[in-house]
Amino acid sequence: MRVLLVGATGLLGTEIRRILEPQHEVITASRKGSDVSVDLSDKASIVAMFGAAGRIGAVVCVGGAAKFAPLDALGDDDYAFSLANKLMGQVNLVRCAIGHVDEGGSVTLTSGTLAQQPTVGGAAVSIVNAGVEGFARAAALELEGKLRVNVVSPGWVSETLASMGQDPSRGIAAADVARVYKRAIDEPITGQTLPAAKT
């Protein structure tokens, strides 16, 4: 199967590609350094990406950003950036995938643990993550039989914690998170938010 991997150059993208490549042809997408380029905050860029990638069987998105800052430090621009990038970027990814992904294929999005377990500084991120999950459930209903839509909700990734000088044992290894994305592609599920857990 041809799989379009958005956010392919990051930590999770690299691990997902490594796990998928033995079975699938992976087309990488990111702002630069990939097979095709994309800016998730720009719908026209997403349309162009699908045009360049050709027919595909699945899409995985681990791209998109949201602003992490204390509530009293978040301005209108911070919320607008978060909503336009990680939320609407992934919403538009599903919308634009219709007609480019094989019937019965899948789109797997990324939310995060702050949708269910908010923390200080995470107001904008919590909005975005919860929005991605709500959208995926609704889109899966409307696209039933045409396109499967799921979300992976990773917690803190061990390698990210280590790079921040924190205890990596509190997190989940990137390779274990990547296996959850593979499950979303391989299993006939839709409308699900799949938590990433230690194995």
In brief, what are we looking at here?
By secondary structure, the chain is of the alpha/beta class.
Q: How would you describe this protein?
A:
- With 199 residues, the protein is of the alpha/beta class.
- The chain has a single domain (2-64, 94-113, 130-195), classed as Rossmann fold (3-Layer(aba) Sandwich), CATH 3.40.50.
- Helix content is 41%, strand content 20%.
- The chain contains six helices and seven strands, in the order E-H-E-E-H-E-H-E-H-E-H-H-E.
- Strands 3-2-1-4-5-6-7 form a seven-stranded parallel sheet, with helices on both faces.
- The longest helix is centred in the middle third of the chain and has 22 residues, at 76-97.
- The two termini are 26 Å apart.
- The relative contact order is 0.16.
| CATH topology grouping | Rossmann fold
The CATH homologous superfamily: NAD(P)-binding Rossmann-like Domain
Overall number of structural domains: 1
Low-confidence stretches: none
Tally of extended strands?
7
Ends distance: 26 Å
Taken from the alpha-carbon principal axes, the silhouette is: globular
